[in-house]
Design brief:
Elements (H helix, E strand, L loop, with lengths): L2 H28 L10 E5 L2 E5 L1 H23 L1
Antiparallel strand pairs: 1-2
């Protein structure tokens, strides 16, 4: 792999992270209860809090799977 391919990969990965961050920021601004859905586990022990967002992870996985499959089908035509 040459230096140009590495540079392109880093730029694409950075753009993906920016889009993901923007989407999360927008979800927070819209008041979506990501991380606070029924099925998300939250344990508190004194000053320690552990959060296991199971329902949120499943929901995001389903949405990303459907979205990426639709995108792949659209780009293959």
């Amino acid at each position: 792999m040459d230096i140009q391919q590495i540079g392109k990969f880093i730029m694409v990965a950075g753009a993906g992270i920016v889009l993901l961050g923007g989407g999360l920021w927008l979800a927070g601004r819209l008041g979506l209860p990501l991380g606070r859905l029924p099925g998300d586990i939250r344990l508190q022990f004194g000053g320690l809090t552990c959060v296991f967002p199971l329902a949120t992870s499943i929901l995001l996985s389903l949405l990303l799977t459907v979205g990426l499959n639709l995108l792949a089908r659209f780009l293959n035509k």
